[in-house]
């Protein structure tokens, strides 16, 4: 049997991962080639406002992963699940790679004390049934206590940062099968109940390399900088996957550190020449509004290579606001890379071209509501969409979400994806679930199409995402994209920026639209008056009168673990009455 130590693998190759490679085998290669160069840095802001840098070299990371894998193989078997319940840290990286090296199926999750997500964590653990839970010494009690509160069979709990009675050596680890499972990526739950996407070594390595090619992530000249959670699909590939594929260093920080002070993210970008980073749309607007002029004086952003904007529709106003705020710091407009992706495709599907600012097109709003993307004439009501660019090493088609038939160019339909980066299904769910492997089957790969549940259109060859199929608000037979209505709502001064959610509920006479909005901090506006003004504004701009407008306190809108507003959770909370006690207007 071929082993990791018998063959030093090439770090770059074709999109189709060669046999026997994994993120863990690539770590062994880079440890041999790069040795004492820094592999990963964690900026710990719990120790101080400026953060304390905790680093591991490639050799140190490889040795720690070896020790953990050795410990794991003493009581686990190939294919057992290893759930990671830890905070963002270098230890998280060790846990993920150690599980893979040991032949386990990693399940990147989060510490039990993440506010508002205990129910999701319990459901995921029940679904994946881990043999072992990996955490840190300071998280042992919390992990054990949380597991005791659930009905799942108790797994072993192991701290990855403790001194073990085994030594790292030149152990020969079996090389994984390309189509063997590497990890389960649980969806965020923004549009559906969290499900574990089964990703093989081939899927993960293919997409990591696609990301390296798309964003110019290279050995020695670039580094990834990320505050995205490592249990999030983009956070994992940006923070661990792509660096393992390219031999690039990564800089990590905690999401809370970013939310407390977004300038920390930008200072990390400034300190990392050739930096590549990613964030959802809201984070760019948040940074532009929260970073002070004094903080900007410390920023040097001219050396940033790529800033990825994805995971939710990209708003032109956000791009303009962010570049307007940081142009004086050397930020170039062409570094902004609008992208589209989802966990079921590992993460990345398409991205705008390098060296060009993302294309923006104003489409006729009424025509778009009927499913036709037509450029708006002067004076017409329009919706401006930002291009998501072109597919990266995979195929994309736009199909009728009901019949599955291809739609004509310029017509809105469901985005479907085919490629070696697409996962093989959901853990523990039937193969024919209407998401993976849809016809027609590709004769070369033998794989079908992934139904993303997202709506989009091809215009002049570029992909534009218009919204999510399940979020579409259909009132009186007319389609409304919730993000359009939310932008109208957020114009009102009583509404906190980027904190409105619009969704549909079923009533006896059909669907009706509901608006949830967080009250702006310090606002003294009469909320009854504001409610009426919002109703009139939405009616005038969209021909739709909201059935209900509910104001909530700042921070009360339900969000996913990556910070996006979850319209699905908003709808559920509204319908089950859990928002009633917080109603302000």
Automatic annotation (TrEMBL):
CDD domains named in the record: FAAL
Signal peptide feature range: none
Domain AMP-binding enzyme C-terminal span(s) in chain numbering: 471-581
Span of domain AMP-dependent synthetase/ligase: 36-427
The keyword Cytoplasm belongs to this UniProt entry's keyword annotation: no
GO cellular component term, pick one: plasma membrane
GO biological process: Actinobacterium-type cell wall biogenesis; fatty acid biosynthetic process
Keywords, sorted A to Z: Fatty acid metabolism, Ligase, Lipid metabolism
Pfam families the record matches: AMP-binding (PF00501), AMP-dom_DIP2-like (PF23024)
GO molecular function, one term: adenylyltransferase activity
Enzyme Commission code(s) on record: 6.2.1.-
Classification via InterPro entries: AMP-bd_C, AMP-bd_C_sf, AMP-dep_synth/lig_dom, ANL_N_sf, FAAL/FAAC
Domain of life, per lineage: Bacteria
Family: Belongs to the ATP-dependent AMP-binding enzyme family.
UniProt-listed PANTHER family: DISCO-INTERACTING PROTEIN 2 (PTHR22754:SF32), DISCO-INTERACTING PROTEIN 2 DIP2 -RELATED (PTHR22754)
Name by which UniProt lists this protein: Long-chain-fatty-acid-AMP ligase FadD26
Organism: Amycolatopsis japonica
Gene assigned in the entry: fadD26b
């Amino acid at each position: 049997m071929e082993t990791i130590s018998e063959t030093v693998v090439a770090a770059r190759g074709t999109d189709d991962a060669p046999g026997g490679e994994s993120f863990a085998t690539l770590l062994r290669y880079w440890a041999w080639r790069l040795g004492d160069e820094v592999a990963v840095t964690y900026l710990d802001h719990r120790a101080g406002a400026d953060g304390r840098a905790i680093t591991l070299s490639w050799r140190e990371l490889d040795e720690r992963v070896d020790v953990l894998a050795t410990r794991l193989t003493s009581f686990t078997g190939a294919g057992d699940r290893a759930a990671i319940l830890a905070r963002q840290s270098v230890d998280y990286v060790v846990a993920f790679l150690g599980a893979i090296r040991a032949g386990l199926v990693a399940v990147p999750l989060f510490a039990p004390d993440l506010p508002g997500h205990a129910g999701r964590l319990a459901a995921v653990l029940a679904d994946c049934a881990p043999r072992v839970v990996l955490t840190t010494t300071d998280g042992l009690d919390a992990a054990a206590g949380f597991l005791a509160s659930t009905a799942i069979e108790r797994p072993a709990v192991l701290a990855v940062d403790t001194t073990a009675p085994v030594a790292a050596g030149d152990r020969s680890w079996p090389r994984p099968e390309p189509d063997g499972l590497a990890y389960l990526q649980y969806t965020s739950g923004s549009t559906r109940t969290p499900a574990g996407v089964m990703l093989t070594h081939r899927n993960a390595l293919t997409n990591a390399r696609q990301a390296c090619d798309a964003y110019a992530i290279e050995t020695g000249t670039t580094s990834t900088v990320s505050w995205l959670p490592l249990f999030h699909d983009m956070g994992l590939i940006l923070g661990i996957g792509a660096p393992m594929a390219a031999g690039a260093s990564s800089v990590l920080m905690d999401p809370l550190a970013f939310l407390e002070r977004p300038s920390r993210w930008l200072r990390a970008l400034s300190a990392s020449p050739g930096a590549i980073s990613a964030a959802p749309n809201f984070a760019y607007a948040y940074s532009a509004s929260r970073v002070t002029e004094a903080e900007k004086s410390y920023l040097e952003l001219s050396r940033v290579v790529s800033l990825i904007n994805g995971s939710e529709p990209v708003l032109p106003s956000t791009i303009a606001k962010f570049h307007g705020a940081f142009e004086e710091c050397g930020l170039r407009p062409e570094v902004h890379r609008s992208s589209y992706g989802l966990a079921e495709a590992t993460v990345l599907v398409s991205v705008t071209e390098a060296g060009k600012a993302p294309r923006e097109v104003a489409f006729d709003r009424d025509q778009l509501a009927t499913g036709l993307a037509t450029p708006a004439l002067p004076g017409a009501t329009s919706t401006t969409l930002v291009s998501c660019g072109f597919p990266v090493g995979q195929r994309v088609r736009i199909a009728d979400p009901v019949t599955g038939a291809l739609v004509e160019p310029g017509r809105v339909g469901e985005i479907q994806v085919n490629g070696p980066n697409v996962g093989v299904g959901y853990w523990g769910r039937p193969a024919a679930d209407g998401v993976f492997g849809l016809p027609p089957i590709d004769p070369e790969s033998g794989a079908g199409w992934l139904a993303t549940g997202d709506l989009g259109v091809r215009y002049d060859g570029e992909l534009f995402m218009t919204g999510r199929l399940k979020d579409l608000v259909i009132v009186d037979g007319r389609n409304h994209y919730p993000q359009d209505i939310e932008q109208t709502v957020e114009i009102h001064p009583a509404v906190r920026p980027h904190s409105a959610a619009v969704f549909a509920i079923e009533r006896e006479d059909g669907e009706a639209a509901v608006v949830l909005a967080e009250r702006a901090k310090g606002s003294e506006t009469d909320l009854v008056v504001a409610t009426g003004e919002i109703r009139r504004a939405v009616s005038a701009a969209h021909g739709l009168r909201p059935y209900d407008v509910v104001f909530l306190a700042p921070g009360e809108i339900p969000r996913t673990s990556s910070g996006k507003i979850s319209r699905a959770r908003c709808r559920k909370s509204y319908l089950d009455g859990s928002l009633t006690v917080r109603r302000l207007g």
